[in-house]
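Lab notebook, bench 4. The sequencing result for the construct came back, and we need a structural model before the next group meeting so we can plan mutations. Quick request posted to the team channel:

Model the 3D structure of this chain.
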Amino acid sequence: MRKLILVLAGMAVLPLYSSCGILDSGASVRISLPTMSFDFSFDLADIRSAIKDRTGYDLSSLETIPEQIDIKDTFELTTAPYKQDLTDQEKLKAYIEAGHVKSVRIKFVRYTIVGNTLNYDVPVIELFVGEYAITNIDQTVKVAEIPKIEIGFIGDGEVQFVDGGRDTLTTQLMKLKFALMGMTKLLIDTDINRAVPDGLISGKVEFGLEFTVDPL
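Done. Here's the predicted structure in token form:
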């Protein structure tokens, strides 16, 4: 490791850099990883299929649910698990192998909706985290939400952590291998709206992480 030299300017101490990151005042190294992106999409064609399975009615060629059909049901749509292995990160590899990883800080978690042709509002998109080997959402814990998305909305914002969600996500991140999933629930109530569910929404959730490690 290169020799450290403190440079004083009045009472200010300039930040110091190692070859891999920023050295803090306790001689630990702070390493920011490249932004991670979890892409997601929900297709309301899946709700039409579920309606057919539950009622026997095929609505795929219709725009309006016929008057003789009454539906009042909530339908869940989930993403496939997005699996991330941080042990593959070049900046961290040597520190992981040496057992020098101390902590992780979540700098930001933000979302972007890049496409939206839905004919229904999305009340909320829930975000879940679990172990790397998960296969379904029952094996995860809810950590955050993307707030209501209205018909036609395209844009971005910060996700909203649920109580304890940031701590739960941080704990899972420290295991260095984890999986994320998304879910939304849509109420179809023909007393309120007879539009046949249609369209697709797509977006991404981006994570900014900074690890603190002991020098090698």
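The two ends are 8 Å apart (CA to CA).
Will bring this to the meeting.
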